[in-house]
Specification:
Helix content of chain B: over 70%
Strand content of chain B: under 5%
Structural class of chain A: alpha/beta
Largest sheet of chain A: 6 strands, mixed
CATH topology of the largest domain in chain A: Rossmann fold
Oligomer: heterodimer
Shape of chain A: elongated
Order of helices and strands of chain B: HHHHHHHHHHH
Number of domains of chain A: 2
Distance between the termini of chain A: 38 Å
Number of domains of chain B: 1
Number of helices of chain A: 11
Number of helices of chain B: 11
Amino acid sequence: MTKGTIEISNLVKKFKDDFIAVDGISLHVNRGQCYAFLGPNGAGKTTAIKILTTLSEPTSGLVKVSGFDVKKEPEKVRWEIGVVLQDTGLDQDLTGREILELQARLFHMTRKQAKERTSKLLEMVGLTKDANRQIKKFSGGMRRRLDLAATLVHEPTILFLDEPTTGLDPLNRKAIWNEIRRLNREEGVTVFLTTQYLEEADELADYISIINRGKLVASGTADELKDSIGADLITFEFADDQIAGSAARMLKNSGGIEHQGSRVTLTIQEATKRLPMLMEKLTRAGIQINELDISSPTLDDVFIRVTGEKEEGA
Amino acid sequence: MGMQSLVIHTWILTKRSLIVLIRNPFTFIPNLFISLFFLLVYTGGLSGISQLPEFDGADYLAFILPVSIVSAAVGGAGGAGQSLVRDLESGYFARLLQTPVTRLAIVLGPTIAGMLQLLMQTIIILTVAFFLGLNVAAGFGGVLVVILLAIGWGLAFAGYSVALALKTKNAQAAQAGTLIFFPLIFLSTTFVPLELIEASWLRIAATINPTTYLFESMRAVLIDGWVMGPILSGIAVITAVCIVTVSLSVRSAKRAFQRE
């Protein structure tokens, strides 16, 4: 079964002005996975998602969504996917109920089916009470929830979300996260999201690809990516400069060492596992440790390492 | 699918355009107001000139009525393009493209809604004109011809406004494009027959302006009865303009629906 899967091989998107927005991307998304595309502004995230959602055509390469070729069978792809893009919106003059019923009718439901589906969706995103108000009177968070409901009208197997929580306050962000997680875990909907928030990728995705200048520069689970940075940091604080000096000499074979005043910083693989051995070594030599701190690399570190750029916005 | 879904989708999107129209009455009230203003003020203020021999004893109310109807028609038809621009700017257009909606329905919905708006406006203006004492020489059939001519002209203008909207994708540009309304309406036999226009440049402009033939055909049925010459030339001109603007709108729609 290919339903709910995404298959991309050697995708290239070159614009008329010769700008190459996507430069040879290949990836595979399994059914029920939550896949995050992480990258700075202008990395090619939106272009890629537009191709996946049939709004744009690939220049070369093969893209299959739920087993259908986006280039040859865009209509079939549209039945499989729900899409929230940054540049999709809703008719602000209609009410929440009207827009959902209209959406359902355009997906070939009868009037009765459309009404039933609408009530169910409104309840799901918690907008039943406000359903008969015009969308222009909705708050940003309510709009985002309605937008999500509108994409779920035809029960898609894959949900595409382009920066789903950009510009939302923490409370609304949590609400959207919960809904995405529920759809993914309980209803088995495959989720493909782009984000520039590392926290969001860390929170939601079970697989992350980092994209920069149209190329995938790193892929893996959040933990794998963090591990790929190579090492943790252990910071020791000693009584004085001299003791720190002799500790640094003893530890220099265990990893990268940096000695500054009474402080010694050690860059080392699997710090927690090897720490007892290091402490034993120091204690045996009669060196007392005043303070100790271990830190693991964050996704930020990975991101900065592979993109060579500072993250914007978060 | 196919034909059946085209009809259903067009109906759904027409209904939606009408709902939006009714919720925003100020998109059509000013236009209707200006058209009625033409009718009332010019009939009241200029009717004396219909005593001139060139008017052949025509009632000035019947002479100026087409101007009022055509200006209302242009406003109603321009709404089709405006509503597409609204959708493009709000992102609803992109959302519609994500559904299996028949592409043609996205353009037909607002166009039909614009035509219905135009029909209502024309009926209101005709009703006011009847209250002012309008007599239609060609009778009830003549009234139908006037309405049909208005719709034909509206469709031509709707084609133009849709083409402009989809090409520019910009509300201000589409709005600016409707300014073509001024030369179309006023560089014509708007207030007096062609024989009374003194400036030769205005005569030339009026002769090449398609609106002139529309005015003349409406005036024929209102004032002279079934005079087929001007009626048919009006219909011919409208058909020609319609073919041009509707094919332009189809072309820009195809571009807008094409994937990058």
